[in-house]
Amino acid sequence: MKFGVVQFPGSNCDFDAVHALRNVMKRPTVMLWHKDHDLQGVDCVVLPGGFAYGDYLRVGAIARFSPLMQEVRTFARGGGHVLGICNGFQVLLELGLLPGAMLRNKDLKFLCQHVHIRVEDARTDFTRAARKGQVLRIPIAHFDGNYYAPARTLRDLERNGQVVFRYCEADGEVTAAANVNGSLGNIAGIRNKEGNVLGLMPHPERASEALLGSEDGRTIFESLILSLERRKPARGPAAGKAARHD
Amino acid sequence: MIDKALLDQHNLTEDEYRLIVELIGRGPNLTELGIFSVMWSEHCGYKSSRVHLKKLPTEGQHVVQGPGENAGILDIGDGQVVVFKIESHNHPSYIEPYQGAATGVGGILRDIFTMGARPIAVMDSLRFGPPDDPKNRSVMEGVVSGIAGYGNSIGVPTVGGEVYFDPCYNLNPLVNVFCLGLADKDKIFYAKAEGAGNKVLYVGAKTGRDGIHGATMASAEFGKETEHKRPNVQVGDPFKEKLLVEACLEVMARGLIVSIQDMGAAGLTCSTTEMAAKGGMGIVVDLDKVPQREIGMTPYEILLSESQERMLLVATPDKVAAVQEVFAKWDLDAPVIGEVVEGGRARISFKGEVVVDIPVDAVVNLCPAYNRPIAPPAPPPPAPALEALPLPADLGGVLLRLLASPTIADKEWVFRQYDHMVQVNTVFLPGADAAVLRIKGSKKALAMTLDGNGLYTRLDPRTGARIAVAEACRNLACVGARPIGVTNCLNFGNPEKPEVMGQFEQAVTGIAEACRTFGIPVTGGNVSFYNDTEGLSIHPTPVLGIVGIIEDVRKAVRPGFRAAGDAVVLIGESLEELGGTEYLKVVHGLEAGAPPAIDLEQEKRSQEFLLDAIAAGLIRSAHDLSEGGLAVALAECAFHAKDRIGCAVDLDGAGRDDALLFGESQSRILVTCRRASVAGLLEKAAAAGVPAKAIGRTGGTAIAVKRAGCEVLHVPVDDAFRAWKDGLPAYFRVRA
What ipTM was predicted for this assembly? Predict the structure, then answer.
C-alpha cells in the first residue's frame, strides 16, 4: 500500500511521518503538496503535525481552504483512509471530517511529553493490531489539544463508539491527572462514524523506534497496513463500503 | 548637522567619528553615520573583545570553518558536517521577554541554515533572578514561552539546556541560544559576494520599522527606563522563517545561488556590506526595490531595520528566474534589489539619488579594536573559616532544600513547553548530562551540552572559565561522547569598567587553557557586553556550548541507575572545599570563597578513562557531580532510574560531613557497573592514574550515606523526588 503525507507550508512533522512510514514501516510514501489537486493514487492520506499555515488564526482554520484539502475531503467521503496527527487532527476538525474543536491546553502552556493512551476499540482500521484496553506510550506536543464538543456530539461519539483513544495512567486507568490538556472525556483520538477517518493528538511517528524510547506508535501504522493491504486491490469505494460495515 | 549629541545617540566617540571621516574622505551623511554606528557597535564589531579572543585555539582535525563566518563547521565523517553556534539575546529579552527570546531563536537558526545546514537542535542557557520575585517570574515565563513559540512552530527541537537563578540577573536575564545544524560537506554555503554582474536578491519578510538600532542598544548599559526601548526589539514570525528555511535549503540544494547571508543585527546594512567585503567586491542596491511593509520609510530606516526572517542571496543572472520560482512556491518575495560590482564600494540609492557611497572594507573590517584598560578582578568575599561555619544538624533536610532550590530543582516545567522530539532524532530527552541526537542512516550520534557557572567565574574568572569547559566536556563524556568543538557565549558587564575587562581577560585565558588541554577548537561564538542595569554588572558568565560524537549510539550512557544491586563507583577525589557552592549559597546565604580547584590534566585523564570504560561496555550509568555535590548527584541518579532506585553508599576520608556531601570538588563522576565488573574497572582506573573507589550499591527506597559505618544521610527517594520535582512549579502555583 502507498501512503501520502500532506505537506502544508508550516507542517513540521511531515518529514517525520515520511521517515516512519517509508524507513521504519517500509511502505512506499509520497509527499502531497498543499497547492496540488493530485492525491497520486495513495491508499491512505496522513495529515502530519505542525502549524499548517502558521496557525496564528484558529489552528487548522486556513488549512481547510487549501486546494489539496478539497481532494482529501472527496477522498474521505469516498471511503479513503485519512489519519490526522496533532495538527492534522485539528485540520480534520476544521474540515468537518471529524466533529468537535480544540481549545488551548487547560494550563495554557505548550506540552511536550510522553503520555499513555488506552485503546478503546481495537476493531477499527487504525487499531486492528492492538488489543482493546491496551495502553500505548506515545508523546504529545501541542498547545491546542484540549478536545471540546457540545454535549450532544459527545454523547453521539460515545454511543457510536467513535472514541478510539483516551488519556490514561500507565496501568490503563482513565483519571483526571492523566488528562494533561483537559480534554472532555479524556479524549485523545476519535474516528468518524464510517471508520475511515481518524484523528489523534499524540504522535505515533515519534514512537516508532526503540532507540527513541517507544515503539508503541507503530501499532497504529501496522493496523492501517493490515487493514488496507488485506483489502487490496479492492481500494476506493469498495474499501469505503467495507469500512462502513465495521 | 552631526554634533556631539548625535554621536552620543549613535554610541560613537569623537575619535571614531574622526576615523570615519578619514576612511571615507569626507563627512558622512546621517544614513552613513547610522551604518557605521551599527557596524562599529560592540555587538557587531567586537571592538573590546577582539584582542583577547585571539588567544582561543581555533584549529583542529575536525575544523572545516573556524571563527569569522556565520557559524563554525566541523567534519563528522561520512561526508557530513555539523554547523553550530551560540548567540545571546539578553537585552531584548529583558525589555520584551517573549519577542526578545523568540527572535533570539530565529536569529541563530538563520545563522545555521544560511550555511546550507538544516538546523536539527537548539539548546538554551538561561539566567534569571530568583523566582520568588514576580517580576523575575514574568520575565522567565515570557522567555520560555518565546523560545517555545518560535522553536516549536518552526520544527526544530529544543533538546535541553540549563537554567540558573541568582539575584545578579534580576534586571539583566541572560538568554543564550545554541543551535546545531547538519549539512553535506560538499554543500556548504558562504556569505561571499562573488562575480561582478551577479544579482543580489532580497528574500523573506518585508522590511518594517522594527528593531532599528537593536545592535546599538545591545552595546550600552541600561538605566531605569527601558520601556521606551521596546520598539528596538524585533517581532518574530516563525511561520515566515519556516518558509524561509525550506526555500533557502531548496535553492541551495539545487545549486541555484552563489552565496547567501542572513539579515540579523544591522539588517540590510550588515548583510550587503559584509557580503561585498568578504568577496572583495562592491555592491549597488536600489532601496526602492526593497519590499516594505510601511509607507514613508527613510533610507536610514530601511537600512537599519532589524525586521526578522529576511535573507540576502547572490545568484548569476541566468538563475534568477529559477530562484524566484522556488520562493514563489513558498509564497515569499524575492526581488532583485542590486548587483555585485567591482570596486569595493557600497553604493545605495533611494528614489533615484545615491544616499550611501562608502568603501565596504572600512565599514566591515576597519572597526577600531580597543585594548581597554584592565584592572585585576576584585577578590571574592572570603568564605568564613570552615570552623566558623555551623554544621547543620539535619543533613537530610539540607539535601531536600538543595533539591528544591530553583537552580538544582527539576526543570521539567521549562522543558515540557519545548517540543524536544520533533525531527525524530532525540535519543535522550532533556535532563540527561548531554543531549544525544541520532544521525539518521548512521550508527553515530551527536551530543551537545551547555555549561557555565557564573558564581564560580565571579569568584575566580580564570578557574570558573576552566571549570565551564571541563564540566561541559565531562557532561559529554558521561553520555559516551568525545568532544570535537566549542562555541562560547561570553556574557559580561560594561567593558569600559577596567575590572570587567579584567574578568573578561581572565575568563578568556581560562577557556583557552582548558580548550588546549582537551584539544578542542573554538569555532566561533558571541560576546555580550554591557550586561549592566542601573550600574550593577551581572556575574561574568561565560557559557560553553560543546559538540561531541558518539561512535555507536547504542552505547550511549544515561545518568539514571539501571537496576538494583549494581555497584556505585565514584571517580575523582572529594576535597574539603565549600567555596562557591550552592550549599553555601542556599543554606548559609553566602556567595563567597574560592571556587573548587581544577586540575585540567587530571580532568582529562578521568574523562578519557570514562570514555574507554564506556566503549568497553563496563558502564551502566554515568552522571557528573556539579551543583549540590555528591548527595545531589546520588539523588539525581535515583530519580532518573526507570522506577526510582535508591542507593546505599559508605564513604571514608577526612573533613566535614557537609563538605563531603555537598562540596563541589571537580573532576568527579558517579558511575554504576555490574558488581562483577568492579574489580576490572578499578584496575583500569588505577592504570590510567585516575582515582576511583567503589562506594556502595544501588537499591532500596532511600538515598543512604554512611561515613565509616555511621549514617550521615538517609532520605527516602520519594521525598527527595517530590522536593526536586516540585521545586520550580511551586513558585508558579503560588501566584495562580
Answer: 0.93
